[in-house]
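User: Could you go from structure to sequence for me? I need the amino acid at each position, not a summary. Structure tokens:
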């Protein structure tokens, strides 16, 4: 704790191969933008903030060896930026990071090629550093509303492995532990690739945070028994109205939380909010290979030729979300108004006035 899933050293990007966890801790080395694209698409690295950081470094890898005139450099840069931007469609952090670097390069396009290269690397490093700071703030925001002894359910992996090292949803747990507040954790398996079983339990075990692993189909039962007091998950893209795309199965859990009176929270940094789309209807949902369902981890579990639907994400409507834990504080409804604070840059000490429920609101406390 924390668990950085990537490191950039000696002009190479090293990625902790999350496909091999929890049995093996091995690192894969990326030397080109194409290597990074394959690693992102192949789930070597996953989690919205983490793939955004990886994409930023991939852009530097794409141009670090370039030799030639500036206009040719800029054309190469644009092509590689587009390649990386499209590596995975749902998580907005990836195109956000690429767009951020591209805008800066275009503003400084009259610099020399070497200066532009240095600029790209510096911006990638800045994105990584900022993510570390934002995740710490998310942890503080979420931990501030928890009572001692509560039990939390989380889905998929929104920990250090999905970010620069501290996590989003799990950042709340790590902060609670640092503060000495007692709590308990349930985590779902997260089928079909078992990110909860393989990754979240690995992280929590490393941090000496006990947890109970359950199948997604068990969530209703444990909620009915009163074993869950709150749900916290991460996010891959959040629309302007608060509709949130996250790992498939999140929507089901949000519905169950609503039915059982359990508060449901999203933990995410500013980079995961996409104010260019009004609602979750505009969020592209990635379709993954059917083999992840029919023969996951090398063992066939369904007849050959069976039809499969394997969306990687679903969208939880904002009406089911109790609050957002962000680097700017806790944001309560109405989201179409209160999320706007994230659209503007603010100083490091800025905090939301809506850390309290807005007038007329009644948050769970």
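Assistant: Here is the amino acid at each position, in order:
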């Amino acid at each position: 704790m924390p668990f950085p899933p990537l490191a950039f050293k000696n002009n190479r990007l090293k990625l902790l191969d999350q496909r091999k966890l929890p049995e093996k801790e091995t690192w894969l080395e990326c030397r080109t933008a194409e290597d990074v694209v394959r690693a992102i698409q192949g789930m070597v690295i996953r989690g919205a903030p983490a793939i955004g950081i990886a994409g930023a470094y991939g852009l530097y890898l794409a141009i670090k060896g370039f030799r030639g005139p500036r206009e040719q450099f800029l054309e190469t840069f644009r092509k590689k930026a587009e390649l990386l931007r499209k590596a995975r469609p749902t998580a907005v952090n990836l195109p956000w990071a690429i767009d951020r670097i591209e805008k800066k390069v275009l503003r400084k396009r009259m610099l020399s090629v070497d200066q532009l290269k240095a600029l790209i690397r510096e911006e990638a490093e800045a994105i990584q550093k900022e993510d570390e700071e934002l995740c710490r703030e998310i942890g503080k925001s979420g931990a501030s509303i928890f009572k001692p002894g509560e039990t939390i359910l989380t889905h998929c992996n929104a920990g250090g492995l999905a970010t620069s090292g501290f996590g989003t949803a799990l950042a709340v747990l790590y902060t609670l532990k640092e503060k000495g507040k007692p709590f308990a954790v349930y985590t779902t398996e997260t089928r079909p690739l078992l990110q909860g079983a393989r990754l979240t339990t690995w992280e929590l075990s490393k941090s000496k945070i006990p947890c109970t692993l359950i199948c997604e189909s068990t969530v209703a039962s444990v909620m009915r028994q009163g074993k869950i007091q709150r749900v916290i998950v991460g996010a891959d893209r959040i629309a302007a109205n608060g509709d949130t795309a996250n790992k498939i199965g999140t929507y089901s859990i949000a519905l169950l939380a609503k039915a059982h009176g359990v508060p449901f929270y999203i933990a995410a940094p500013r980079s995961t909010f996409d104010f260019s789309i009004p609602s979750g209807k505009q969020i592209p949902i990635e379709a993954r290979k059917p083999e992840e369902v029919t023969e996951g981890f090398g063992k066939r579990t369904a007849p050959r030729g069976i039809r499969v639907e394997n969306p990687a994400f679903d969208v939880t409507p904002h009406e089911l979300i109790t609050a957002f834990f962000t680097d700017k504080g806790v944001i309560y409804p109405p989201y179409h108004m209160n999320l706007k604070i994230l659209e503007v840059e603010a100083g490091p000490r800025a905090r939301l006035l809506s850390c309290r429920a807005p007038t007329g609101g009644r948050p769970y406390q």
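One structural detail worth keeping in mind: The domain at 139-355 is CATH 3.40.50.10470 (Rossmann fold).
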